[in-house]
UniProtKB/TrEMBL annotation:
Pfam families: ArsA_ATPase. InterPro entries: ArsA/GET3_ATPase-like (IPR025723), ATPase_ArsA/GET3 (IPR016300), P-loop_NTPase (IPR027417). It catalyses: arsenite(in) + ATP + H2O = arsenite(out) + ADP + phosphate + H(+). CDD domains: ArsA. This is arsenite-transporting ATPase. Its EC number is 7.3.2.7. Belongs to the arsA ATPase family. One of its GO terms (molecular function) is ATPase-coupled arsenite transmembrane transporter activity. It is an enzyme of class 7 (translocase). It comes from Caldisericum exile (strain DSM 21853 / NBRC 104410 / AZM16c01).
């Protein structure tokens, strides 16, 4: 499976570029899924289809969906609550649902749910998945989360091992440890292989390592969609540096809404001069990255044929 992430700030045209790219891949014969993770959700408008909260067939090789982040948060926390209750039964003495209600509005939950959505889509059988991402800040935090999560999961594993070691010491003196919950005797595990909490930590760490490897692999393509402006140039450098911190390669930069006018009016001369200046600086700064100009279109493309036309003219 190949994965394609299109990142950039709001309003630069990520949805148009990513939808065009996915449409082009599908026309080439690749079984392709395009996923909008952007809360703005313009993918359905570009495709002329309602794809919100469901996977919809667009053409022979193209499916599309817009992730309902609010619903995904509720489903994620509900699933985690069930796991906690099943994995660690004596947490029932706590009102764990109250804690998950707090988490629903906590900082960072959107990033974790977005990462979980990506992980689940990667388990599907498509040849290519194209991700139309949230604004830059959220997306960069999502890319960083697997690495950060592995670090703190290792700490939790070490902590859990110390707990199990103390339990084993008690077992050596008093025998197996158990407790009675709701009239049922429950054995308290002391070995890693029997401890559901430790097994859950191992599973989570494995998932995060797999995501790190996926994001760093040669099958993962990250492209920045931006415009030929000074502020956008500075942001592109920050994006590249943030990606490098997580061992992720920036493959392409698409300069969208590029002005191509033979005899521009005086009012646009300054803007066109800025474009030329920024493109020169970008080609020097990003000499290892492919840079493509995508001209400002007279109207926004809508529908599969219009999107394929953009792909064939400007994206390959």
């Amino acid at each position: 499976m190949q994965t394609f992430f299109f990142i950039g700030k709001g309003g630069v045209g990520k949805t148009t570029i990513s939808a065009s790219f996915a449409s082009g891949l599908a026309k080439k014969g690749l079984k392709t899924l395009i996923v909008s993770l952007d809360p703005a959700h313009n993918l359905g408008d570009a495709l002329n289809k309602d794809v919100f909260g469901k996977v919809v067939k667009i053409s022979d090789n193209l499916d599309a969906t817009e992730v309902d982040i609010d619903r995904a948060i509720v489903e994620y926390l509900t699933e985690m609550s069930k796991k906690m209750k099943n994995t660690y039964k004596y947490l029932s003495v706590l009102n764990i649902d109250r804690y998950f209600d707090v988490l629903r509005n906590s900082p960072g939950i959107e990033e974790y749910v977005t990462l979980e959505a990506i992980r689940k889509f990667l388990e599907t059988d498509y040849s290519a998945i194209v991700f139309d991402t949230p604004p830059t800040g959220i997306t960069l935090r999502v890319f960083a989360m697997p690495r950060i999560s592995v670090v703190w999961t290792n700490s939790l594993i070490d902590m859990r091992r110390r707990i199990l070691s103390k339990r084993q010491m008690v077992e050596n003196i008093k025998g197996p440890i158990s407790d009675v919950l709701d009239g049922e005797e429950v054995k308290i595990p002391s070995k890693e292989s029997e401890d559901p909490v430790m097994q859950e930590l191992f599973t989570y760490k494995k998932d995060m390592v797999n995501l790190m490897e996926r994001f760093s692999s040669e099958e993962n393509y990250v492209s920045v969609v931006t415009m030929a402006e000074e502020l956008a140039f500075a942001e592109s450098k920050r994006i590249r540096d943030a990606l490098r911190e997580n061992n992720i390669k920036l493959r392409r930069i698409y300069l969208n809404k590029y002005l191509e006018i033979e005899n521009p009016p005086r009012e646009l001369l300054g803007k066109i001069e800025e474009q030329k200046r920024v493109v020169e600086k970008m080609r020097k700064e990003f000499n290892e990255v492919e840079i493509r100009e995508v001209p400002l279109l007279t109207e926004s493309p809508r529908g599969i044929e219009a999107l394929i036309s953009i792909y064939e003219k400007y994206l390959v």
